[in-house]
Design brief:
By secondary structure, the chain is α/β, with parallel strands linked by helices. Helix content is 42%, strand content 16%. It has 13 helices and 14 strands. A seven-stranded mixed beta sheet has the order 2-10-9-8-5-3-4, sandwiched between helices. Strands 11-14-13 form a three-stranded antiparallel beta sheet, with helices on one face. The chain has a two-stranded parallel ribbon with strand order 1-12.
């Protein structure tokens, strides 16, 4: 059976990247690696749309999130966390692990945070030193209004805007510098279409200044050490060399496509997926502001979303994703980011139709596929 990886992480890896990673390994302190690393660190700044430092860490995105708390906040500091899904919840857990006092804005799953809630919380407690939010909440398929939130946080010199963009960077427009994002985390296994294992963190001068006062203990995820190493085109500890070689190829391909084209492609794939699901009687889960990274789809009433997800994999070789936590069995999710194209979406839609038809759901085969084709055919 041929396999198709259409999960929202890890995502497919292109043959070009796989071949690059298969080259003989470089030593991480060799001049050849330093030349490569210098190029990669400049190219990742292009993707971030920033002049700030962007650290490259040997970890998944959660490692970048962890370091974004431990390096810039002290026990007893106050933070504001937007919790509208599993990954918003993760910000809360990480902050609490480092003794940061958290005020949560609880957002109903499937909805976005109202920026006015951010304003009200900061006015009520001016001692808040960080606002933590997801650009794309992968568990619900919602994109939060980070541009508007950034404008609000800019007015507070002692407060950092901290964004988890793990499933957003390289999918839709995020202007790190222009929107006042102080710390932004991403990962290799999403839109960059690499295997898991790299985390990226952009850091503003405002954040570095706050980091000088932070009192939390840290060793491996010591961002000051990484910044010092970055100045010599190296990492503080042993670099995941093959992944960085793959990153070099991935960024080269992304630069050839161009940011505007990448954003337009992701938006079209996401729209085609959503509209195709509607055509066969299914509802996208997000109630507002659906993310272009991943389409979360409600299972039809009386049907198990976990069985839909499993049948896609077992019967047709398509690995999508199920629901998490309170959404388990209620939704399934299909990625629209990274090394995914027109026919990946058509295959996914056709397979969903076949799975549902096999489960007895009333639909006419090809209905969703036709809708997707019409959208994907447009320039």
């Amino acid at each position: 059976m041929k396999r198709y990886l259409l999960a929202p992480g890890p995502t497919q890896v292109s043959p070009e990247v796989l071949l690059a990673m298969a080259q003989p390994i470089l030593h991480h302190r060799a001049p050849e690696f330093q030349t490569l690393f210098k190029r990669v660190t400049e190219d990742i700044k292009w993707l971030y749309q920033t002049q700030n430092d962007v650290l490259i860490l040997a970890s998944t995105g959660t490692g970048g999130m962890d370091g974004s708390v431990s390096n810039f906040f002290s026990p007893g500091d106050h933070a504001l966390v937007v919790n509208g899904g599993k990954f918003g919840e993760r910000w809360t857990k990480i902050c609490k692990a480092y003794g940061v006092i958290v005020e949560e804005i609880m957002v109903e799953w499937g909805h976005v945070v109202n920026p006015n809630q951010i304003t009200a919380a900061l006015q009520k407690d001016p001692s808040i030193k960080g606002v933590f939010v997801q650009a794309s909440e992968t568990s619900t398929g919602v994109a939060h209004p980070i541009r508007e939130i950034g404008e609000i946080v800019k007015a507070y010199p002692g407060c950092l805007m901290v964004v988890d963009a793990v499933s957003a960077l390289g999918v839709f427009d995020i202007q790190t510098d222009g929107w006042g994002i102080d710390i932004m985390v991403a990962g290799s296994q999403k839109a960059l279409a690499l295997p898991p294992g790299l985390s990226f963190v952009s850091i503003s001068p405002k954040a570095w200044a706050q980091g000088e006062k932070a009192k939390n203990a840290k060793f491996y995820f010591n961002f000051k050490k990484e910044k010092d190493a970055l100045a010599t085109n190296q990492t503080a500890f042993t670099a995941p060399v093959s992944l960085i070689v793959g990153l070099d190829q991935s960024l080269k391909m992304m630069k050839e496509e161009g940011l505007a084209n990448i954003f337009a492609r992701s938006a079209k794939l996401a729209l085609a997926t959503r509209e195709a699901m509607k055509a066969i009687g299914l509802k996208p889960y997000p109630k507002e502001c659906p993310s272009d990274s991943v389409t979360a789809i409600e299972a039809p009433e009386g049907y198990d979303g976990e069985k839909i997800y499993k049948d896609l994999r077992v019967k047709y070789g398509i690995t999508a994703a199920g629901g998490q936590d309170q959404l388990k069995g209620k939704v399934f999710r299909i990625a629209n980011m990274g090394y995914i194209d027109t026919f990946d979406i058509i295959i996914a839609v056709a397979a969903v139709e076949m799975v549902l038809k096999g489960m007895g759901h009333p639909l006419k085969l090809g209905t969703g596929v036709g809708v997707a084709q019409e959208i994907l055919l447009k320039k």
